[in-house]
Amino acid sequence: MEEPEPRAAVVVEDDGDIRELLVSVLTQAGFDVHAASTGTAGVELVRAHSPIVTTLDVSLPDIDGFEVARRVRTFSGTYIVMLTARDEEIDTLMGLDAGADDYVTKPFRPRELRARIQAMLRRPRQLAGAVSALAAASAVSAGQGAATAVPHRGPVGAPDSAASPAPVEVVAVPSPSAVDEQDGVLAHNGLRLDVDARLVDVDGAPVHLTRTEFDLLAALLAAPRRVLPKVELVRDLWPEDYGSGAFVRDAEKRAVEVHVANLRRKLGDDAARPRFIETVRGTGYRLTPRR
Which of 103, 155, 88 shows the shortest CA–CA distance to 259? Predict the structure, then answer.
């Protein structure tokens, strides 16, 4: 049996000592690490190696980390952890707006950084479990709402499977969104989210989301009748920091607002006349009614 290929990671850091430390931390975590000292070289490393995780310094000699993150986000869904000595709230928000999944200030503790990365890598499995629980609840509620069939599809643009081991089930969902219990697909008003494949499309056109944006959208789709408060979304998105009931600061609530704004922009959703996500002023967000 062949050994699995090591997971790739990219480090973009102009300080040689910190770069070596990051390479060591990620190598010990089981990654095949590729390092760059400039932003443009870092973008090319991400393009060449398709890393799972990218650590990104904000202050670089050519282009800053915010611009690197924006360029990377045009073609990659890598987890981006921004590292910087800047600790102002506006810098954190700029990093999140550029497409970062986490923002760590220097000096950082290597064990904490490794724990944050490991927590990010666990999120897809946590999310898949939540969707499975929702699907099970939907099956129990069969007959209480309109039944909606959501056919499973592969990646956008790929042909549908000619043969399937079982027909697509019709699941009764007493809510404005549809759940395919068998395939883990959530759908709402022309929007489809495949939890296992981590694919999103709107009216058949693929939409590229960051990991955090994907998790945020899935959380909303998995709770179609509920208003999700910002505090709850913070705990869902960053369970390693806030899942135990830790106090949620205004900065984290603001970070959720930034992610929602980015998500809306990518989905083509108008906040004034929303098709997918409604703002409940002073509280949080919910799905729009089914059309």
Answer: 103
Which architecture, in CATH terms, is 7-108? 3-Layer(aba) Sandwich (3.40)
**Cα 257 from Cα 129, distance rounded (Å):** 25
Q: For residues 114, 117, 119 and 124, what is the CA-based torsion angle, rounded to 10 degrees?
A: -150
> What confidence tens digit (pLDDT) does each residue in 12-36 have?
999 888 899 999 999 988 899 999 9
Tokens linked to 184: 């883990």
Specify the pTM: 0.49
Task: For residue 101, give Cα distances in angstroms to 79, 119, 154, 290.
Answer: 6, 12, 26, 30
How far apart are alpha carbons 167 and 176 in whole angstroms?
23
Residue that the structure tokens 């950084």 belong to:
113
Contact 265, 252 (CB under 8 A): no
Task: Tell me the CATH architecture of domain 122-153+166-287.
Answer: Orthogonal Bundle (1.10)
Q: Domain residue spans in the chain? A: 7-108, 122-153+166-287
Dist CA 284 CA 138 (whole Å): 24
Model pLDDT for residues 170-212, shown as the tens digit of each residue = 333 334 444 443 467 899 999 999 988 888 999 999 988 888 8
Q: Which residues pair with 55 in a beta bridge?
A: 11, 81
